[in-house]
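Quick illustration for those who missed Monday's session on complexes.
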Amino acid sequence: MPTSICKACARLMKEKEDFPRGNFDSDYCASCVDHKGNLKPRDIIRVNMIRYRVNNTGVSEEEAAEIVDNLMRSLPAWNKPKTPTT
Ligand SMILES: [Zn+2]
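Prediction with zinc ion bound:
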């Protein structure tokens, strides 16, 4: 089973359900694309990432927003021009 990191939200994708429609070649996880396989708008993904951190790590929404904004700056989907992946 391949493992990769979502290029839009940095989520670790390792289960079949983590990949959109079981597509292991996808750069993005199942929660970052719509039913057609297109990347969702940045704002929607950002809100999901913030909510995830508030629910799972107990940080405040303000703290989570700061973490997410910093994280998104380094993610290939939002960071143009492309940075080389290591
Ligand atoms: Zn994602």
